[in-house]
């Protein structure tokens, strides 16, 4: 029991010290796109839903008043990696590996 109580603070320190180790993947993706995690399933104005956070427990919301635009806002379509784009376009997709295409 003493051994466990000695290692617990070390484990907690490592979870805080190593970037990204303590956060779920969906939360990291949301924060990477300058999003915020809300408890409700719908986002308050001026935010728009952009996926999930905290192991799909919360909604990732992105501010629509900023200059941040998603792929669909720019008229594109998000497609998985096996599909080839005739013309790619700038803009993030809800799935990190997917790409934004204007023409498929």
TrEMBL record:
Main location: cytoplasm
Keyword Secreted included in the entry's annotation: yes
Record key words, sorted: Antibiotic, Antimicrobial, Defensin, Disulfide bond, Secreted, Signal
The keyword Repeat belongs to this UniProt entry's keyword annotation: no
One GO molecular-function entry: CCR6 chemokine receptor binding
UniProt subcellular location: Cytoplasmic granule; Secreted
Record-level GO cellular component terms: extracellular space
GO biological process: defense response to Gram-negative bacterium; defense response to Gram-positive bacterium; innate immune response in mucosa
Segment forming the signal sequence: 1-22
Family named by the database record: Belongs to the beta-defensin family.
Protein name from the UniProt record: Gallinacin-11
Source lineage: Eukaryota, Metazoa, Chordata, Craniata, Vertebrata
């Amino acid at each position: 029991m003493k051994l466990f109580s000695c290692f617990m603070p070390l484990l907690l320190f490592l979870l805080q010290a190593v970037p990204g180790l303590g956060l779920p993947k969906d939360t990291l993706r949301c924060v990477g796109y300058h999003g915020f995690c809300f408890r409700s399933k719908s986002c308050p104005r001026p935010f728009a839903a952009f996926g999930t956070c905290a192991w799909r427990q919360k909604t990732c919301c992105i501010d629509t008043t900023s200059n941040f635009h998603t792929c669909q806002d720019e008229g594109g379509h998000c497609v998985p990696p096996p599909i080839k784009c005739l013309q790619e376009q700038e803009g993030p997709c809800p799935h990190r590996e997917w790409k934004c295409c204007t023409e498929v």
